[in-house]
Design brief:
Elements: E1 2-6, E2 12-16, E3 23-26
Parallel strand pairs: 1-3
Antiparallel strand pairs: 1-2
């Protein structure tokens, strides 16, 4: 079982099926990780 974690707030976003335990990093919402996001959809 793997999990997807937000890079900014460390909140678990989602889980996915995998043979080994893995953590992927993403962003859970538009408020998280605004730095470096030049083209945001507002």
């Amino acid at each position: 079982m793997g999990s997807i974690v937000c890079q900014s707030c460390e909140q678990v976003i989602d889980y996915y099926e995998d043979e080994k335990v893995t953590v992927l990093y993403g962003k859970c919402c538009s408020e998280c990780g605004k730095e470096g996001m030049e083209h945001s959809h507002n």
